[in-house]
Amino acid sequence: xxxxxxxxxxxxxxxxxxxxxxxxxxxxxxxxxxxxxxxxxxxxxxxxxxxxxxxxxxxxxxxxxxxxxxxxxxxxxxxxxxxxxxxxxxxxxxxxxxxxxxxxxxxxxxxxxxxxxxxxxxxxxxxxxxxxxxxxxxxxxxxxxxxxxxxxxxxxxxxxxxxxxxxxxxxxxxxxxxxxxxxxxxxxxxxxxxxxxxxxxxxxxxxxxxxxxxxxxxxxxxxxxxxxxxxxxxxxxxxxxxxxxxxxxxxxxxxxxxxxxxxxxxxxxxxxxxxxxxxxxxxxxxxxxxxxxxxxxxxxxxxxxxxxxxxxxxxxxx
Length: 318
Fold this sequence. Notes:
By secondary structure, the protein is of the alpha/beta class. It has 14 helices and 8 strands. The protein has a 4-stranded parallel sheet with strand order 4-3-5-6, with helices on both faces. Strand 7 (303-305) and strand 8 form a beta hairpin. The longest helix has 14 residues, at 123-136.
């Protein structure tokens, strides 16, 4: 179905699940509770992975809840019409989810004791994942082509706008005690360690055996087989199941020394990857918390790719 995005304070949204009136209400009237925990992400950064982890933490590692209640009811979206109705039935402490940029997040959060877990992922991996995701999710415009969607991604001409602006906005919170950053890459490298740190952040004490259970039941393999978590029960108004599955691979596309931008050269060898990389405003990356975090220095590093497909990473090895 063809549609046009509308703007709310400069951010693109699609009609249907979103409206200007609702977004204004969420920003100015939504009541954040002191014991709330918010999962905030740019799309395709690991949102549902965190929902699964926090669902299991909330229930002391008992998998019955994640195996019997669909994921969008366990942690509703605060900015959608459906989510606002679902929030009414969420037990405290509430775990809620949002893709909202910093400047239009509920104002009541900033005077509360509520906490945010912000999940980041390499934008090059996000782009590839989002390209396939947009083909099956009904409130995204279907990409015209890989090349055009890359242009749209770089320019922020997609739902929720630019990854760079989203991260730049939320990094204003990085030194606050109620703001916790975790990366998709960390979750892959050390899931158990991430779960332990998340528990500490939200003040939940669980023994080693329960941490192990949470790691087991929140693995990609288990989630992909769980119909309550894999969106196979999503309605046709949300997802077109004939075009693909919600959970594809759950893997990082960066490994070894292969930068994602080389995909450009593979898909269209007439194009120079440098023509795309030059459009990126890399100054935004200076705001990322890179010091002391090797995976951030490499995974979110600036890749300068030439037309001959030789790559150098200016902030560390890839």
